[in-house]
Amino acid sequence: MVLAGDVFDVPIRKDIVHRVVRWQLAKRQQGTHSTKTISEVSGTGRKPWQQKGTGRARHGTLRGPQFRGGATMHGPKPRSHAIKINKKVRRLGLKVALSARAGEGKLLVLDDLELPTHKTKNIVSYVKQMDNTKKVLLVDGGPIDENLKLATQNLHYVNVLPSIGLNVYSILLHDTLVMSRDAVNRIVERMHAPINR
């Protein structure tokens, strides 16, 4: 199969890949961490002792940050960790990752990824035939074939993605990329589509 040069043969730019991976990892953070401020913490608002005459330090509440069970100052609040990155840069990152795998000879294209049976041993023997392969990413065009899903779900070194879910971080995590013809065509089409502004 002849691969599109502007998708599978672009100059390798580590800086672009680094930016895209940082964006992906930052965007997937949940950001649900939370601490309680002095207005949210449970406890009385009463002044613990009078201002003068006791010899102790003056306090207006027992729920300040210096007390046990008190508030947390400047602690984390729920927020998005996502950083901004331009769509053109995101697209270029995917092209660079695909080009890197193609340049290493670690990109395999099959006619389709449909299996006659859901047995895992078929996938295991297939992966063993590959040279220098530790982790494999299978990319299919449309919805994942049910037999393929069942055959790979128990293997930690084989993962399956539809073409729409293909991303830079997943490509970098796996040393070998196996794609169907349909997936390649869909990705090239996606890379050639105009960017919505």
Structure explained in plain terms:
The protein has 197 residues and is an alpha/beta fold. It has a domain at 86-192: Ribosomal protein L4/L1 (Ribosomal Protein L4, Chain: A). Helix content is 36%, strand content 10%. The protein is built from seven helices and four strands, in the order αααβαβαβαβα. The protein has a four-stranded parallel β-sheet with strand order 1-4-2-3. Helix 5 (146-152) links the parallel strand 2 and strand 3. The longest helix has 18 residues, at 87-104. The model has no long low-confidence stretch (mean pLDDT 92).
Quick structural gist:
The chain has 197 residues and is an alpha/beta fold.
What attributes does this structure have?
four-stranded parallel beta sheet, Ribosomal Protein L4, Chain: A, 7 helices, alpha/beta, 197 residues
